[in-house]
Specification:
With 1161 residues, the chain is an alpha+beta fold. It contains 30 helices and 58 strands. The strands form 15 sheets. Strands 49, 50, 51, 52 and 53 form a five-stranded antiparallel beta sheet that branches. The two termini are 95 Å apart. Keywords: Cell projection, Cilium, Cilium biogenesis/degradation, Cytoplasm, Cytoskeleton, Repeat, WD repeat.
Length: 1161
Amino acid sequence: MFVYLSKKIAIPNNISLHCLSWNKEEGYIACGGADGLLKVLKLESNLSKDANIRGLAAPSNLSMNQTMEGHSGTVKVVTWNNHYQKLTTSDHKGLIIVWMLFKGQWFEEMINNRNKSVVRSMSWNADGQKICIAYEDGAVIVGSVDGNRIWGKELRNMLLSNVAWSPDSKIILFGTTNGELHIYDSLGNPIGKVELHCLVNVTGAVSISALEWYNGRMGYIEQDCPCLAVCFDNGRCQIMRNEADDRPVLVDATMQIVDAKWNETGSTLAIAGYQRSLTQDKDITVVQFFSAFGEPQHTLKVPGRSITSLDWEKASLRIALAVDSHIFFANIRPDYKWGFCSNAVIYTFMKPDRIDHTVVFWDWRNKEKYVKFVKQLLLVAAMDDHCCLATRSEEDIGQYAVVLCNTIGTPLDSKFIDIEPLYMTMTSTHVVVASHEAIYTWQYQTSRSLGLSHIVTSQQRKDGREKLIHIDDEKPHATKAEFLNFKAAQAPTQDPVCGIAASDRLVIAARESGTLHRYTFPHLELTHRYAVNCEPRHLSLNCNSTRLSIIDTTGILTFFDLDARVTDANGQQVIGEHLRFERKDVWNMKWASDNPELIAIMEKTRMYVFRGLDPEEPLQCSGYICQFKDLEIKSLLLDEVFKDPENPNPDDMIELEVKSLRDTRGLVQTVGLKDASQFVDDNPHPRLWRLLAEGSLGKLDLDIAEHAFVRCKDYQGIGLSKRVAQLGNEPMKQAEIAAYFRRFEEAERCYLEMDRRDLAIELRMKLGDWFRVVQLLKSGSGGSDDKQLIRAWNAIGDYYADRQKWSNAVTYYEKGDNQERLCECYYMLEDYEGMTSLMETLPDNHKMLPNMAKTFKMVGMCEQAVSASLKCNRVKEAIDTCVFLNEWNQAVDLAQQYNVKEIDSLLTKYASHLLEKDNTLQAIELYRKADRFASAAKLLVKIARQEAENGASPLQMKKLYVLAALLVEKHHQQVKQKSSKGSSRVDSYMYDDMSSEELRAIDQAWKGAEAYHFYLLALRQLYDGYVDAAMTTAENLSDYDDFIDPSKIYSLVALSAATNRAYSVCSRAFIKLESIETIKEEDRKAYSNLALEIFTRHEPRDQRRTGESLNRLSDEKQPVCLVTGRPVDEYQLWSCPTCKRCASAKEIRSRHYCPLCHTKI
């Protein structure tokens, strides 16, 4: 970072200031001093006429300067309540006043005077609800924002000097005049003391000068970041993570500390005080800036004898200093983590709710941005089309990663290194990283494109693409070892590296002593050492690597000529000269990428462009320089970007022109081409010649234009000049020139005025502006060219198709009769009806039909796919489509229609394959779709047999047999239809692979369904209590013992007969049970014992009240009703047309479906 003084405000009557505070919300500055002085100021930036002058470069004036009366003694303490816009002040007499803003003026709201002691410190908590007031005698008062006292306490034997709240308002720290730090909770209960490690081995009395605890409102720069600063008057400082941190950051500022403050983000601690000057033998006023980890960032010398206080503004871009009777303002130029490549700006910031860094890849020209989140990001560098991110590894302590990305944040490659990346820069082929001790280079891109051959492991180093040297090596050389020795590179050095610069030819490393090391690429060999009289902070090489620009720690810019040969004091010739050139307060610089003599620098809020050592007229600007090319400078107002980093504004990118470019443009426009040509001759640059050529073309001075194009090597421009010179018509020349300068509207207007609509159409066609082409074709009295109009319609369709606006594309493809693209759009829209209509309009054997058939096939539209295939005479593909989509019936029909014999063998082969894979159900479905119903029924009967053996439920068995029987019926109908049509090909082949037993089983499928139907009916009647009907139905099952286990049949008969007290029937059922040969002996014995037990109690005679005696166990056969299970007479029969089974006409009237096959009645 860099800090420089920018403004000074004097206090009237030379009254010395004692305290100062800057309101973080509204920007008010309160300052207090002797004789009761209390002023509130407000510094506001004025809007400049130039939109580019914004931020710190904008002029600022006091919009408020109010002197408030109320204190009679010296005002010692001022503090703001930022949330409620209240100001609290106290003087050396102990008077406390709370001020409030009313109608643009500050007025007293509350007054309190304890009249016992002086207030040494006051602090509002993070949310502004409470204030803690610490008196010197140990009294503490905690009050609310509305003036009520919450609690008060006397801390005995303690003289207080400082107070601070913790960010969560749960802890209060009290500092004493003897240098102790006590911890209390928010209710005033003591907790303990803070261990002060920074005072170890310190003798003598010390006191706390500043106690600052960052409130964390804007987040933290890192996880577990130090935020509590304790500064003592002897220069010792302790920065802690919390009040109990046993490993704090220790800092020795080597100065007498007066005050210290955190900036708004907690990243920088500013410490004000006095430092002894060794050269002047007196104390000088300084402000030192440290990072949260104690790293020194900058030292600012301030004029004056006594500095008493300081504070930051909200954006942390300015700091106010109370010095004697003046308020000094200093501008802060932070070291943002950012880079610029191509048209992309890469920058990082922290969100309060996240612990990782937010990295934004912002394409400012196209207004697009890509956001990535990176943990423990350290550095950012960019060049050409790549950027590089350096991060700290989370898993391995002491290991770091260097990640190569493109302009949208996509990682391309990465390397792991074991040195801490403190400095990083990029060239078009290399990444250069430096720690205090070593330099590491990585060739991330060669003449070949990045590919798999470039990917290596994190340890294996191939092809010498990575180099590592120690800064103290006298003769460093590139090793070709597969492993880089990072351990040797970490050896400590007495003269650390403090900066690096690199070009395609050189690497320059600067050391704190002022020594410069020059290394060559790509071997990284040390060729020269130079010495400069400063400590470099930033380095930069010009485009031909002949001159080095250096900004030292004090902000002084100097140049070093690397190739100059001079004679030293000893009379020896040496290479390298530190030029006698200095510029103060420089904080940014950029060499031109196309001219080694041009450099742009930022000096305070002015941008200077130097040609050699001569400056041009400065421009007001506060941006960071991104690019210097073609006499144009791109500068980014990063301060404005970081005000709302999630929504960057393209207006924050400023494009500035150097003076020679501005002067040339003025000469061309106002003076004349000859003078302008002479000026460009004296100040040659390709951009100036191009500007002169453009101006000459505009004035139709083709000779000067051609000469200028030759000087800037613009061969297209030379061709244009010659082409325009051959045109005899001046409007035609103006049109050609306007088109060259991309003033296409003007060129078209010229063509139309000359009645050359054809040239205007040709121009728009070259530009791809097909909408305008259509307008031009439809306008005019001569009609339009149909071919050109069709081409325009198709081009507009391509425009919408490229943007995936398929429905819009369809409209224009229809107008252009582009059937191929129209089919593609229908497919993308899934408009298969449109595709079908298009297919029907195509003639036979059209070249699109095969592809359309494939498209329909892939989306499962069999009928349309077959139609498309048949339309182009591809019968085989049509049949294959049916097979692929399992439409076997259609495949068989096509095979029969077109006499294709391979379908039967293919069907059989595929069915055998399914059966081998035990996919019987799929084989059944295959046969069913192919209209081979007998084969499907055969497999279903087989499944039914297997399920019966596995003990499947009767209902499932009935369903299987009904389905098989229905397939058999369809087969019979199919045979009848083919026989009636006289077809010579009857499906006898359906039975060729079946045995007689299988044929009989298929023919008896209805009987199997009937068996399980009556079995279920008997069970249902028995459970419903209709025992007589159950017994009658069960007796019918004796005809179905080849489908149902006889033991189940006669057990059901015996059970229902015994329940119905028909013991004669029951006795015959037991006789059948005991005579079954397949039952086990223990089951036979159990049946015998049960029969003995029953018929010992009951005689084997029917005891029913009706006296009926049914004997269905005999051989007599009668039709049985499907509804009741009882026999029916002939005249009562109702027969189902599908299953051909009967039922009582009386019982069937109340039903809508057949009880067996469920056919609708």
